Amino acid sequence: MNSLTCNENHDSKKSGQDIEFLYKYCSLNKDNAQHRERIFTHNELYFRSPRVFNDPFDSKIRLEFEGSKDAWKTYLLKLYRKKHPDWNREQRLAEIRQIIRERRYERIPEGLLDSYLDQIGVFCMSEVNDQILMWSHYSESHTGFCLEFRATSTTPFFSRAQKIIYIARNIHQ
Fold it and tell me: Is the pLDDT score of 103 beyond 50?
């Protein structure tokens, strides 16, 4: 199965030029009423968890961890020092020996990714304000609205936005 290919820059004359504005498509449903209101009342943006994105393939990161048991032991010792500062060295080593004995370190990447996704938020924007699919998907079937944010190099927050380029690839690789 292949993931969907998406490139939201549908207007070829815009490619290669500096972007002056970025757009946020919004719906008027009651699920996001509080976040929508705070944009206007507090100049506050809401960064959603990637876990609640409507595309099941968004933020699906494939992690590969390689290394010897000794490398894993060193890595896990550092991790457990941060995670359990109240444990003494023997307690940490006992836990790590058990992880290595049971080969649980082979499943750790999934847990790390889950933990990472729980700690981040994403504010999705578009370079275009007139894309029919964006209006359909993100503004509740064309009933919502689209906010415009200045995003020039002199705009402190929006000038740091990072463009995401979607590529087609086999999701089972």
Answer: yes
pLDDT band at 62 (very low <50, low <70, confident <90, very high): low
Position 15 confidence tier, pLDDT thresholds 50, 70, 90: very low
Backbone angles phi, psi at 152, to 5 degrees: -80, 175
Distances (CA, A) of 92 to 42, 107, 113, 125, 130: 45, 19, 22, 43, 55
| Cut 0.70: pTM above it | no
Phi, psi of 129 (to 5 degrees): -110, 5
Contact status, residue 121 vs residue 102, Cβ threshold 8 Å: no
The pLDDT confidence band at residue 90, using thresholds 50, 70 and 90, is very high
Rounded distance between C-alpha atoms, residue 63 and residue 149, angstroms: 34
Whole-Å CA distances, 148 to 20, 25, 29, 40, 136: 10, 9, 19, 13, 18
User: What's the rounded Cα separation, in Å, for the pair 157 and 24?
Assistant: 14
Report the alpha-carbon angle 83-87-88, nearest 5. Answer: 130
What angle do helix axes 69-83 and 89-101 make, rounded to 10 degrees? 140
C-alpha distances in angstroms, 98 versus 27, 91, 101?
Answer: 49, 11, 5
